[in-house]
Amino acid sequence: MSKKVVLITGASSGFGKFTALELIKKGYIVYGAARRVEQMNELVSAGGKAIKMDVTQDDSVKSGVDQIIEKEGRIDALVNNAGFGSYGFIETTNIDHMKRMYDVNVWGLVRVSQHVLPHMRKMQKGSIVNISSIVGKVSTAFLGFYASSKHAVEALSDAMRQEVKRFGINVSIVEPGAFSTGFDDVVLKELEAVNPGEAYQPIVDNFIPYFKKMYEKAPSPEPVVNAIIKAIEEKNPKTRYAVGMDAKGGIMMKGLLGDRTFDNMMLGQMKMK
Ligand SMILES: NC(=O)c1ccc[n+]([C@@H]2O[C@H](COP(=O)([O-])OP(=O)(O)OC[C@H]3O[C@@H](n4cnc5c(N)ncnc54)[C@H](OP(=O)(O)O)[C@@H]3O)[C@@H](O)[C@H]2O)c1
After folding, report:
1. Is the pLDDT of residue 1 over 80?
2. How confident is the model at residue 251 (pLDDT cuts 50, 70, 90)?
3. Ligand 1 pocket: which residues have CB below 6 Å?
4. Are 213 and 171 in contact, with CB atoms under 8 Å apart?
5. Based on the structure, what is the number of domains in the chain?
6. In this structure, what CATH number is given to the domain that contains residue 165?
């Protein structure tokens, strides 16, 4: 059987990079896509291919997908992984600042899928794995914009799964908790541009050490990589893979506790009471 062709967005770091390296080891033809091609040298040395792609730019996405089709003739699996976190309060956050995040986390996923789906539909098979988050299921103070972008990923994925089932295409969602990648560095960098205002500043001052501590203890990304690979390889993959104790526990608690109790628990944990 010929080797499967996989496109992974956000392959220059974190989940995307480690999934790419693991799939190369397993014998897949792996195309990693990201803006920082130089950060994909390890992937290229391991036998993968690196494509410069900005998922916010339609031309860039089209040209990346066209390159793969020209060379390989098909894309068997797509991992929509590119994304980042930007946090802020609803009252004081600049909407344009958050539009950048939606353009990657939400529209980026749609853009790449729109260019890949016609090829999978022609083959009448394929797998799409969309990377959401625990905050695709729960939302907390200060994370509302990021959580809403991941709630959108969940809703789009559910719709996509139903729309393309009849073309033999599987769609799965992976919902990680906190894992050690480049994610926390980007969040902290994004926070530098946030001016929360006097009323909210003390909450940010408490949140930053809480967040840093959480990521200092965060596990390495193997379980997420394994879930992505399972979603690609299984004949009937699960619709959702919650990965990590915090993700599984958080989603379960949200279901078990009422909103008020969940709110109180979160506010306590985040020292926001
Ligand atoms: N780590 C966690 O705790 C965690 C938890 C839940 C969900 N997630 C989700 O997991 C996914 C992967 O994140 P990660 O944790 O692996 O973080 P990461 O190490 O920061 O990797 C993010 C990747 O996204 C890419 N990216 C960002 N903007 C892009 C754009 N405009 N076009 C193309 N690629 C872009 C980055 O590449 P370039 O900058 O080179 O373009 C990078 O390769 C994200 O969707 C994130 O929301 C992470």
Report:
1. no
2. confident
3. 9-16, 34-36, 39, 53-56, 81-85, 104, 131, 133, 176, 178-179, 181-183, 186
4. no
5. 1
6. 3.40.50.720
